[in-house]
Specification:
Largest sheet: 6 strands, mixed
CATH topology of one domain: Rossmann fold
Helix content: 25-40%
Number of helices: 15
CATH superfamily of one domain: Resolvase, N-terminal catalytic domain
Distance between the termini: 62 Å
CATH class of one domain: Alpha Beta
Strand content: 15-25%
Length: about 525
Amino acid sequence: MVINWNQPGAPDAHGEGKRIPAAEYVRMSTEHQRYSTDNQAQAIREYAEARGYEIVKTYADEGKSGLSLGGRAALQRLLDDIESGRAQFKALIVYDISRFGRFQDTDEAASYEFRCRHAGVSVHYCAEPLENDGSIGSSIIKTVKRAMAGEYSRELSVKVFAGQANLIRLGFRQGGAAGFGLRRVLVDQDGRKKSELGRGEHKSIATDRIVLVPGPEDEVKIVQDVYRRFVHDGMQEREIAAMLNSQNILSDLGRPWTRGSIHQLLINEKYIGNNVWGRTSFKLKREHVRNRPEEWIRSDGAFDAIIDRTVFAKAQAIIAARSEKLSDTEMLDALKKILDRNGQLSGIIIDEACDAPSSSAFRLRFGSLLRAYALVGFSPHRDYRYLQINRRLRELHPGIMTGVITGIEAAGGIALIEEDTDLISINREFTASIVIVRCFQTGAGSLRWKVRLDTALNPDITVVARMNEDNEVPRDFYILPRLDMRSALLRLSEYNGLSFDAYRFDDLSLFYRLAARRRMRNAA
């Protein structure tokens, strides 16, 4: 419901026919709320019309959680426009107080409104029963509302966790890839199998569930052979990986095998049919926590096993024995060698090292990997691997540029490259810039890309090559016209809604067609 606060003295009285420029900020927390931002915008416009405001700019965060500022590009852009003096509006209208966010700290929730008011932009909540006039009454109501918004998220988090835990205990899969030798199968609410889900596919009906089933017979035999060679033949993970790679057998992710990927295959209980969830948690997006084994949610025997439990137990005993034979000092010496060799530490790097215990062994011995890191003098506050990745992407850029030029010319177009800027002039009609964007993972494992558009050269079209999760080859492409881009910094996730994904393409065939030339008869 939108409360009509229109009364004598409202802003529409400021001059005849003159309306006050205002911006609107809308947010919805999930991409499933299709019409949420439309409903908010409609209410805001009714409020603006009644109060004498004119909406001149919209900032929209679609499918973004209100638990933190991170990932909310529109709100960040809004604050930057206001505080930099670029804003061409005098007021900001928001649907309700929770649209700014459902922060657990009410001081943080209030800070964003304060930053707007401090820069001279008043803030109005069109669906709240208050006039945001700085009075004691409005301040008390806002504080209560912000606390209620944070408590709503906390209670929802508890309910969602309990619901997910219950589904795990019932034997249903919650998130994550199936793994080599296994497949995800969709079942309806009565447990009847519907279809197999491919990589990246998700269920579309809320009442459907996902279970794990054995995959193709050849993959199952490979998994069983890995365990046999490790348990009975005494082969190490790196040796098994080398053997599979020599046979041109790729992992479930389509990559060559490594010591770490073999190790993960050997320690995951899903291969004996156990459904285990909650090893880590990221509640309310505040802090990643590695939970103790007794806190894990599990359902043993939920799926059909492809590895005998006795064989699995022997594999775990072999892995555990590696660290049992070493003292704390010897383990830390091994970890220090890995650090000296790689310049940094992570669970993956440790698991890839053939001369040291696994990351899980360090975690069990020292309580956590972070404590083990601290004991060898490593602080993982920043990951510098991006420097190496960026260097590799710069090396890929000339090859991608050459491919684009070849594609333009094959379509009949003319492409000229400015040597100083790498800007491409196409048919002397429009310009294009080629940008290669690094892929990185969030703490929750989601893929993200950060695109910086060149505002200095200001090309007519920016072609974004979005790299895959290994940063080895382009995953897809975005063809972004300058006229449609409102920000110089774009933050992309795997799925971005129609506002961005309308510009996404699997290849550049459309872009090449833009450069094609057509013969036309002379006009009379």
